[in-house]
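Supplementary Text 2. Reproducibility record for the structural model of the 64-residue chain.

All settings were left at their defaults, and a single model was retained for analysis rather than an ensemble. We include the record here because the model underlies the residue-level annotations in Supplementary Table 4.
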Amino acid sequence: MKVVNQYSSVNDLDNIREGDIIVHRNGKTAIVVKIQIVCAKGQKQYFYKLKNEGTLFIAKSQMA
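Retained model, structure tokens:
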């Protein structure tokens, strides 16, 4: 089980895989069924599709 929020490191976010159980900042838990990572406009954007819970979105600034 992995805790995920806006303060999670890029390394932690990159290591989440489909099938992992994550805990949202609101305390709910969900299984990741699909992951999309987009690099755009100086940000790395993470979209985690969650089983029966919608999508979790986290944007992290890319460091130079």
